[in-house]
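Recall that a protein's primary structure is simply its ordered list of amino acids. Everything else, from secondary elements to tertiary packing, is in principle encoded there. The following example makes that idea concrete.
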Amino acid sequence: MRLLPESVTLVLLLPGFCPAPPLEPWEALDRYLARPHDWQPGSADSVFALQVDASLPKLRKQGSMSGLRLISQAGQVVYRGLRFTGDDLVKTAVIARFLNNDAEPPRQAGRAGVTRENYSFVYHRTSDYNGQVTYVFRLAPKCKHIGLFKGELWLDKSTGAPLRLWGDLVKSPSIFIRSFRFVRDYQDVHQCTVPLRLLLTVRTRIAGEAKMVVWLHSVEDRSTLTGTDARGSDSVTSEGSACRSTKGGD
């Protein structure tokens, strides 16, 4: 005896699909602020292919560096196999300084996190980001500590994950720097949110404007790292010095 028509039976056997309802803007923000923004101990070791392109347009100098950025389970950052082409001034004054600061963040970095203590958040609009609907919040710092900025935070409408963060520093980190703007795009790797692309535009008092684009792509196949041990102790920057630290901040 056939209890159900074949069409009904087929529908019952097919898996149901219930898309998660989108979050409200403040729900997305609350979820973002509750996420650990540092690399957490216990996360898997990760390896990223690094590409840095930098220039000093006023001096007509440019250069590029490629290599590997390694993050250990303890959150230590190490650079390996760095290769450079271009003008030495760009290498030493722009790229090398960036890598050293990344591996050895300043002590005040912990005070510069995107938190309610540091910033006021105002919902601004929705926007498209590579086909994803995002909530855009305007950020205004509550004080003028070094590392704080005025800009925007873009969050995924469905998950609250960060997709883009950009801004202008409200206080110059050096007397030689007039202004500092960054744009940071994100990717998810091993359930951790890490930068995918970083754009920097720095106006200096001596060399004029300095521009830099940093790309990070996850390297999942460790067999491609010929001659490179992600757990090793040797690490070099473009200046040949040891370069590692425990990361902090966003």
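Residues 23-37+44-221+228-246 form one domain. Residues 88-103 form the longest helix (16 residues).
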